Amino acid sequence: MIDDLIKEKLELLSSKINAQLAEKTALKEEIKFYQAENRELKSELSKERANVKNFPIPTEKPNIAPENGSYAEKVTAITKQIDVYVEEIDKCIAHLGE
Question: Which of 32, 55, 36, 33 is nearest to 44 (CA)?
Answer without folding.
Answer: 36
